[in-house]
Amino acid sequence: MKRQLSLKLSLALAVLVIGIVIVVGYSLLSVNFFFRGLDSMIAAGMEDTLETYVETVAPAERQQLHKFSGYIISQDWQQQPDTIQQAFAVPPKELGRIQKQIIADWFQRTDAVHFVIQLDADNQTFFVSRTITRENSSPLIGRQARENKRLIISVSLAITITLALIIWLLMRRVSQPVSRLTEWTHHLTPEVLREPAPDFSYPELNEMAELIRNSLSSVHDTLEREQQFLRFTSHELRTPISVIRNNIELMRKIQQKNGGAPNDKQADIIDRIDRASLTMQHLSETLLWLSREDNSTLSAQSFSLDELICELVEDMRYLLNNKPVEVELNLSSSTLNQSQVATRIVVGNLIRNAFQHTWEGHVVISQQDNTITIDNDCLASSKPEASSDQGFGLGLQLTRQLCDKLGWTYHTHVEPHRHHVALTITPLA
Fold first, then answer.
1. pLDDT (tens digit, 9 = 90+) per residue, 215-237?
2. Do 284 and 241 contact (CB within 8 A), yes or no?
3. What are the boundaries of each domain within the chain?
4. Which overall architecture, per CATH, does domain 297-424 show?
5. Sheet strands side by side (includes 418-424)
6. pTM, whole model, 2 decimals?
7. What 3-state class would DSSP assign to 361?
8. Which residues pair with residue 420 across a beta bridge?
9. Minimal CB count within 10 Å: which of 23, 78, 121, 342?
10. pLDDT of 240-269, one tens digit each?
11. What span, in angstroms and rounded, lies between the C-alpha atoms of 366 and 374?
12. Which of 303, 314, 302, 400 is nearest to 349 (CA)?
């Protein structure tokens, strides 16, 4: 998975990039202004030279090309040197606007720079040009360019370092309360939730801490009420379940004492009541154990896992009555040291689910050591009323909760017409 940047680092990088962009932009702008200033100085020098030229040279001699004070002055563009005409394919047409042609860009050594301008003087139009090379350029210009370049680089680096330092100090000042908030949330317990949230220096963080505390307190109170209700309900169910089971045993003993045997219908009813009460008893014990706050486990004992599966299959065969379903058992002898009550509830729920939702086809139950797999055909479309079965969702939920709490591996895979369940029971040492 791609590693994501933290919020603090993302914000710092964003501010730093913005600062660098601003510094680079103003540096380039400073360089541009520097060269514009040089161009303006050269243009002013051309104007002054042309005024001096008009005052000095007679009108009759102005028709010729003249080199005057380092500048080339002519009234005809064709009289300008070939280098100027090659550098500027089109003669300047706008009066007073200097044109420049650089042989190399700013980041390389400049071989030559050509300047040309069109000016009016004494009611006549003149072309004034000049070519500056490394040989004929003034040392002052080169020195000023180098000094300006060093100054821009120095100022840019100083601003960038200062900006990075400010960002680091700001992030450090902001990150400390955020880190304290993160550490506080990691150590939240029911006891800490009852105390007021600490001060995190910033109103936004304090508001967030209060929201977290209130939300978790509300969730904790809800869970506490649900667990209390679960404990009370499970305790209260023990009495009617015990009454039902005791009366079933009493009914059987009375029938044996009187020497009479119930008919098949009565025996089937009694067996169903007996199985339902046994399931309710196991569910109540499991609910009580799940509602415990400590990590104590159910009492463990050694038992035969394959025999338990056979017993559960036989107890729940009534769910397959009047169904064209075949049950295939692939079991191996295995003794397991684990809670038999929890194992009975988990495996029983899985078998009950397979039997309830299989209307035709096969149910294959395989067991190898402490791993159980159940595959069943689930043609729900043929029996839409199967999806409306009530009460079984609790069994599935308890199955997953029991597996999570016991550390068992529970996996389900649903296909269009096939349901696969795999359960690995972890034995106790």
1. 888 887 887 787 777 777 767 77
2. yes
3. 7-159, 203-289, 297-424
4. 2-Layer Sandwich (3.30)
5. 325-330, 361-368, 371-377, 418-424, 409-415
6. 0.45
7. strand
8. 375, 413
9. 78
10. 888 888 888 888 788 777 766 666 777 777
11. 6
12. 400
